[in-house]
TrEMBL record, chain A:
Its cofactor is FMN. PROSITE patterns: 2FE2S_FER_1 (PS00197), 2FE2S_FER_2 (PS51085), FAD_FR (PS51384). It comes from the Bacteria. Pfam families: DmmA-like_N, Fer2. Gene3D superfamilies: 3.10.20.30, Nucleotide-binding domain of ferredoxin-NADP reductase (FNR) module, Translation factors. The keyword Iron applies. This is Phthalate 4,5-dioxygenase oxygenase reductase subunit. Keywords: 2Fe-2S, Dioxygenase, Flavoprotein, FMN, Iron, Iron-sulfur, Metal-binding, Oxidoreductase. Its EC number is 1.14.12.7.
Automatic annotation (TrEMBL), chain B:
This is DUF3445 domain-containing protein. InterPro entries: HODM_asu-like (IPR021848). Pfam families: HODM_asu-like. It comes from the Bacteria. It comes from Roseinatronobacter ekhonensis.
Length: 320, 355
C-alpha cells in the first residue's frame, strides 16, 4: 500500500511567527470542504514544490483534532537541515496552495491509560498540543512537563499554562531548570503512561530512566522523526523496475526513487513507521542504518529503510 | 435503483429469499477452482456498479429484516453488544463514518444534517428521525456504536490499536460465523485468532496484522471470508449452538439445495480518525445452493472447491459431516468444463451447463 496516495489540497490561511525559530502555518481545505478529523499525535506529510524539486516533510498536527475547518503545524527553522523548513519559513506565504498527506498517527494516546504524563523538549511540544486538546474534549487526566531553551523559545507555553495552570510545568534551560524526571517517574499512580517527544538525548534519557525504574515498556511512548542525513552519493540497482539510480549527496534513497518514478511506499519519511522497509538483494559495501525501525538482527544486510538510511560501497541491489 | 425491501425471517420459518438481483450481485468468494488461506486484502475503493463492493456500507433488500433480527438477538442476549470504557470515542468515530457514508451513498434513503455539534439523522427505511448532540452520549437512546450498528447490516468489531497490536475492545456481533464477542472481548489479534487451524503455521496472521496496523485514514481495505450454514441463519453464535447446531443433522438429499447456504463475509477495515482505532465491519451474505447453481460458473467452481478442501478446513468450517451430501448435490452442476478466472458470474460468456 502506497500511503502517499491520499492527499489533501490545502491553502495557507495564516503564517504566524512565534519566535526566532518557530513559525506556525495554518491551512484550510483548498475547495472549502471540511478537513478530516484526526487523533492527537498524528502527523501530516507536507508536499512542497520547490522549483523542480518536490520536498516532503512530516510535521505533527497541532490544531484541535475536532476542528474540521483548519489544520496547523509549527515548523522549527533548521538552517543546517536539507532545506524543507527553510523553504517553508522563507518561501511559503498566505494564499499558497500545498498538498498534505492524510493524517497518520504513530504517537497516539493509549486510551486505556488512567493518566497521561507528557514530556516535551523544544519543538517536540507540537503533538502534545493536539493531544491536550483531544483530552479536553474527551476527558482524561494529563500532566505536561515542557523543557525549552528560554522563555522566548518556549512556543505555546503561555497558552498552555493559561488554559491548564495546574497541569503544565515549564523548565527553562537558561534558568538552569531541569525536568525532575526521576521524581516524576517514581511517583505516578498505576496505569499512568509516559510520552516523550523532543531531541534524541531527551528521548534516550526518558526511555533509560523509565526502564531503570521498572516501567512496563508498553506504558512508555516516544516519537522522533529523523531527518535524512546527507552523505556521499551512491548508485543503486533496482531489481523489480530494472532501473539504476544515483542518490545525491543531500537526497535520501527514498527521494531518489520517487524522482525516478519508482513507486515506493512511505508513511513517516523519518525512520519510524516501517512502511518503506525494502529487501536488500545484494550488496558489496556498508549499509548505514539511520532508522529506529529495524531490529538489531535485521541490520544484517538483508533490509534497509530508504527514507533515512544510506550506503557506501561498490554495489547495492534492492527489491524495488 | 430503488431497493425493494423484503419482509422475511432468519429463524423459525426461514422465509429469507434472495431475489434474482441479489443472486447476481452475491459476493462469490472463489477466484479460482481451489481455496487456501491468504492475506487476500485489497483496497476498499468502490467496485462495479451494483456490486456489493460499490458503496462503503452496502444496503440491500434484506436491510429491514436483518435489523429486526438483530434487535431480537439483542433483546435475548444484551452481551452481543459491548464497548469497554475507553472505546466511546471510537464509537462516535464509527457513527460519523456510517452516517456520512450512507447519506452520501444513498441520499434517497438516509440524510445527515449537521449544524455544529447538533446533528439530525434521518433513516427512511427504518422510520428514524433523530436529532442529537455529537459527542454527547446522553442525547442518544444507546451508546454511539450501538445506536448506529442497530441500523447497519453486518457485525462490527471495533479494535483498539496499541502495543503494535489490535485489541477487540468493542463490538456489535449478532450475525457471526460461530465466534463470540463476549468470549473475545479484550483479547488481542493473536489471542482471538488462536482457534483457526493451519493459518498460524503459514504466518498468515503476522502478515495480516502488519497490514492492518498500517491501514490509514482514507484508505480502507477489504477481503472476503466464507463458510457453510444450514438454513439462512444470521445468528450462528456459540451462545446459541444448542439451537442451530442440531439443524446440521436435518440435511437430506432432498432438501440440501434449499437448506444448505454458502455464507460469505465481506470484511472491510477502516481507520477511525479521532480514536486511531480500527473498525472491522463483517457483513454476512447468505445464498442457498439451489440459487447459487443458477450461475453455471459458480456451480462448477463451488463443487471443485468443496471437493478439494483440506479436511482441517472443512472441519473448522463445520461441514465435514455433510460434505458428501453437499458434493452429491453440487456434482450435478459440474460438467467438467473450464471456468473463467475471477469471481464474477460471467453469465454472458460462460457456457450453460452441459447435461
Amino acid at each position: 500500500m502506497s500511503a502517499g496516495l491520499e492527499k489533501l489540497p490545502v491553502i495557507v490561511t495564516a503564517k504566524v511567527k512565534l519566535n526566532d525559530l518557530v513559525t506556525r502555518f495554518e491551512f484550510a481545505h483548498a475547495s472549502g470542504k471540511a478537513l478530516p478529523p484526526f487523533s492527537g499525535g498524528a502527523h501530516t506529510v507536507v508536499e512542497m514544490q520547490d522549483g523542480a524539486k518536490t520536498r516532503l516533510n512530516p510535521y505533527s498536527l497541532m490544531s484541535d483534532p475536532m476542528d474540521p475547518t483548519q489544520y496547523a503545524i509549527s515548523v522549527r527553522r533548521d538552517a543546517a537541515g536539507r532545506g524543507g523548513s527553510v523553504f517553508l519559513h522563507d518561501k511559503v506565504q498566505v494564499g499558497d496552495k500545498l498538498m498534505l498527506g492524510m493524517p497518520v498517527n504513530l504517537f497516539a494516546l493509549d486510551l486505556t491509560a488512567r493518566k497521561h504524563l507528557m514530556i516535551a523538549g523544544g519543538i517536540g511540544i507540537t503533538p502534545f498540543v493536539a493531544q491536550i486538546k483531544q483530552l479536553q474534549t474527551t476527558g482524561g487526566a494529563f500532566e505536561l512537563h515542557y523543557s525549552a531553551r528560554s522563555q522566548a523559545l518556549a512556543s505555546y507555553a503561555d497558552d498552555l499554562r493559561a488554559a491548564h495552570p495546574k497541569r503544565v510545568n515549564l523548565y527553562l534551560d537558561d534558568q538552569n531548570q531541569q525536568i525532575p524526571l526521576e521524581r516524576l517517574l517514581s511517583g505516578q499512580p498505576p496505569g499512568t503512561h509516559v510520552y516523550v517527544c523532543g531531541p534524541r538525548g531527551m528521548i534516550d534519557w526518558v526511555l533509560a530512566t523509565a526502564e531503570r525504574l521498572g516501567w512496563p515498556p508498553e506504558a512508555v511512548h516516544s516519537e522522533e522523526f529523523l531527518a535524512p542525513q546527507s552523505g556521499k552519493p551512491f548508485t543503486v540497482d533496482l531489481a523489480q523496475t530494472g532501473k539504476t539510480i544515483t542518490v545525491g549527496e543531500h537526497e535520501s534513497l527514498l527521494e531518489a526513487m520517487e524522482r525516478e518514478g519508482v513507486d515506493a511506499p512511505y508513511l513517516c519519511r523519518g525512520g519510524a513507521c516501517g512502511q518503506c522497509e525494502t529487501r536488500v538483494i545484494a550488496h558489496d559495501g556498508t549499509l548505514q542504518h539511520n532508522d529506529h525501525w529495524l531490529e538489531d538482527d535485521e541490520r544484517d544486510g538483508s533490509k534497509i529503510m530508504p527514507c533515512v538510511s544510506r550506503f557506501e560501497g561498490s554495489r547495492l541491489v534492492l527489491d524495488r | 435503483m430503488t431497493i425493494q425491501f423484503n419482509d422475511e425471517t432468519f429463524r423459525d420459518d426461514y422465509t429469507f429469499r434472495n431475489s434474482e438481483w441479489a443472486i447476481r450481485r452475491f459476493p462469490f468468494p472463489f477466484h479460482e477452482d481451489s481455496y487456501m488461506y491468504s492475506v487476500n486484502m485489497e483496497r476498499h475503493r468502490g467496485g462495479p456498479e451494483g456490486s456489493v463492493y460499490e458503496k462503503r456500507f452496502d444496503v440491500d433488500e434484506h436491510y429491514i429484516s436483518e435489523m429486526r433480527d438483530r434487535a431480537q438477538v439483542l433483546a435475548d442476549d444484551p452481551l452481543r453488544c459491548q464497548s469497554l470504557p475507553h472505546m466511546t470515542l471510537a464509537g462516535w468515530d464509527l457513527l460519523e463514518l456510517i452516517m456520512v457514508s450512507k447519506s452520501e451513498d444513498y441520499p434517497d434513503l438516509f440524510e445527515l444534517h449537521r449544524d455544529g455539534a447538533t446533528w439530525r439523522w434521518v433513516n427512511k427505511p427504518l422510520g428514524i428521525d433523530d436529532t442529537f448532540t455529537f459527542m454527547d452520549e446522553s442525547s442518544l437512546p444507546y451508546g454511539p456504536m450501538e445506536y448506529i450498528t442497530r441500523q447497519t447490516q453486518g457485525d462490527f468489531a471495533v479494535l483498539d490499536q496499541r502495543e503494535n497490536n489490535l485489541w477487540m475492545d468493542a463490538g456489535m456481533v449478532t450475525t457471526q460465523a460461530d465466534w463470540s464477542l463476549d468470549f473475545d472481548i479484550g483479547m488481542n489479534f493473536f489471542e482471538w485468532h488462536a482457534p483457526v487451524p493451519m493459518a498460524h503455521e503459514m504466518g498468515v496472521f503476522k502478515r495480516a496484522l502488519k497490514f492492518l496496523l498500517n491501514v490509514q485514514q482514507g484508505s480502507p481495505a477489504r477481503r472476503l471470508n466464507w463458510t457453510m450454514t444450514v438454513n439462512p441463519l444470521l445468528d450462528t453464535s456459540p451462545e446459541n449452538y444448542h439451537k442451530w447446531g442440531i439443524q446440521k443433522t436435518m440435511l437430506t438429499p432432498e432438501n440440501v439445495g434449499r437448506k444448505q447456504h454458502l455464507r460469505v463475509e465481506l470484511q472491510t477495515f477502516f481507520r477511525l480518525p479521532r480514536s486511531n482505532a480500527l473498525v472491522f465491519p463483517i457483513r454476512c451474505y447468505l445464498i442457498a445452493l439451489e440459487d447459487l447453481v443458477t450461475v453455471p460458473k459458480w456451480g462448477r467452481r463451488l463443487h471443485r472447491v468443496i471437493r478439494d478442501l483440506p479436511e482441517e478446513l472443512a472441519t473448522y468450517k463445520g461441514f465435514i459431516d455433510n460434505r458428501p451430501m453437499i458434493l452429491d448435490y453440487l456434482s450435478q452442476y459440474d460438467d467438467g468444463q473450464t471456468t473463467s478466472p475471477g469471481i464474477w458470474p460471467d453469465l454472458d460468456t460462460e457456457p450453460p451447463l452441459r447435461r
